[in-house]
Records
---
Amino acid sequence: MYPIVRREVFSETSFLWEVLAPDVAKSAEPGHFVMARLYEGGERIPLTVADYDRDKGTVTIVVQALGKTTREMRDNYQEGESFDDFVGPLGLPQHIGKAGHVVLVGGGLGVAPVYPQLRAFKAAGNRTTSIMGFRNKDLVFWEDKFARESDQLILCTDDGSYGRPGFVTQALKDVLDNDKPDLVIAIGPLPMMQACVETTRPYGVKTMVSLNTIMVDGTGMCGSCRVTVGGEVKFACVDGPDFDGHQVDFKELHARQKRFKSEEARANEDFAH
Ligand code: FES
C-alpha cells in the first residue's frame, strides 16, 4: 500500500499527491512516469513524475480530474489514506546535459512534469528560461518553485487575468527572436506541444516534447502509444516519453487520441451515477 502523505488542491479539477514510495523515489529521474492503480480491479493510469525527494522517499504527482479514475482520486482519497499500486519509475529519463540556454515551456498541468527537468537543467549549469501557461489566474500553481530555478520566468494566462496575456507560443517566439535558446522543452496538451514545435521549427532549435498523454497501459503491451518519430515507429512508454518534437508525426497522434473518446465518456457517466 502507498500512503498519500500530502494532498494539495490547486483548483476544482487539479490537485497534487505526495506519495510515500521510497523505492520509486530512489531511482526517479526527470522525464520518468509511474503507473498508479487505486484498488484491486481498478484502472491503471500513467502519471508523470512531477517531483521527488529521495531523503523523504516521496514522489509527487499532479493530477487533473477529467476521467473516471482521476475523479475517484480527487473525491475518494484524502491525505493519510493509502492506495494499492504505484509502479515505477518507467520510461526513459530526459537527457540532461550542458546545452547553454534552455527554455522550458509548460502548458496547464504540463507545468508539473516540466519542474524536475527545469531543476535538473539548472543544476547542470544551464541558463534557464521558464514559460508557464494557464487558462486563467485560478489555475496557476508552482510559480514560486519555478521562480527559484529560473533565470527568467514568463507566466502567461490565456485570458490575461494574470501575468502576460496570451499563449505560451507568443512568449516563446519573443524569446526565440531576442535571446535564442539552444534547447526547448515543451510539455502540455498535444495541440500546445505541436504549436511550440511549429514555432521553433523555422529557428532550427531542438525541441523536446513529452508524449505521456497518449499512453494507456504504460508497459509496451497495448500499442496505444505508438508514434512515428523521424519515420520510425516508436512506443512512448518504452522509447520515450520524451522525443524530438520536430520528428514527431502529430497528425497521427491526434487521430489516436480520439480513439477512446466513447469508452471514456461511458466510464465517466458510470462514475457520476
Ligand atoms: Fe501501451 Fe505504450 S502505453 S504500449
---
Amino acid sequence: EEDERTERIEAALDELGDDVVILGHNYQRREIVEHADFIGDSYQLSKEAADSDADYVIFGGVTFMAESADIITDDAQSVILPSMEASCPMAGMAEALQVDAAWAELTAETDENIVPITYMNSYADLKAFCAEQGGLVCTSSNAHKAFEYAFEQGDKVLFLPDKHLGENTAYRLGMEDEIVDWDPWDPEGTTAAEAVENDIILWEGYCQVHERFREHHIDAIRDEHPDANVIVHPECRREVVEAADVSGSTATICEKVAEADPGDTWAIGTEIHLTHHLQRWHPEVNVVPLCGDACMDCNAMRQIDPNYLTWVLEELVEGRERNVIEVAPEEKDLAQVALDRMLEI
Ligand code: 13P
Ligand code: SF4
C-alpha cells in the first residue's frame, strides 16, 4: 500500500514540477518528511516559505504554521494544509478575543509600556494583535532575542501562549526573578494589579506533549545510560530543562545529534516522530527517546496523513486547489509586521 501511495505522490510531483514545494516540520511522519523539499523547525520553515516562489506551498505541519506561510508568501501563492484537522492545542489556549480583554485589564493597572510577544504557536489574529501593540512573534530558536527586542522597546513583556518557553527564556536571560504566571480567569490567582508589578508576565498556556516529560524520566535515562546527553525542547517544564544537559528548538536537537560522535548516546525529550527520524538519519549515534515510545506523540501533527498528501497533490494535478489556508486580509498585514520583526532580530 505504501509503495503504491509513494508512486502516486511521485507521479503527481513529476506532473506539478516546480509549481509545488513541500515543507515538512520535524514532527511529521516519515511518509511525509520523505517527500519534503525542506525539513526543519518552525523558524526554518517560515524562512523557506518566504524564499519560495512555487505557486503551491504544501505544508506538512499544523494550522498556525500554514497560516504563517500564507502571511509570508505573496498573494499569488497558495498554501495548502493536507488536513484541516491539524490544529495545535497550545495555539488555541490564547485566542485573540480573550487576550484583547485581558490586555485591557492589564494595561489599566500600569502606566508602564508592556510589549506582547507571541510564540509562533498562535493564530494569525493574535499575531496581528501583538503587532498592533508594538510586539512581535518568536519561535523557540529566537525567543531570547525577542525578549531583548521587547525590553529595548518597553518596560515589561506579556508572553503568550507558552508559559514554559517564557519561563525558560527568562532563566536564559537571568531574569528569573522577574516572572509571574497570570491566568486572568483564575479568581484565586494573581490579579492584573499584582501581575504588572513584575517584568515578565506569562500567559497560562502549555504544550500537552512536552508537559508530560518529568525529571524522573531523566533520572531513569541517566541510570540506564550514565554517559547519555539529554536534550529537551524548551516547551518542557522548567525542572526538566534544568535537569537536561541542553535545551533547544527542534533544529537545535537535529544539529546536536548530527554533530555527535559515533557511539555517543543522545536522549531526546521531544515529540516522538523526530526521535525516530534521528534514529534513522544517524544510525551511528545511539538515539533514545527520553520517555519510551508510547505517549509523546503530537495528535495535531499526526493528522497529516500521507493519504491526504496524495489527495491534495492529485487534486492539484486536476486543477483543483483543496485545503487552502487563507488568512483574512485585515489580519494579514499586521501579522506580517509581527513576523517581519521576528525575521529581522
Ligand atoms: P520548533 O519551532 O522547535 O520546531 O517547535 C515547534 C513546536 O510545535 C514544538 O512543539
Ligand atoms: Fe502544538 Fe505541542 Fe504539537 Fe508542538 S508538539 S504542535 S506545541 S501540541
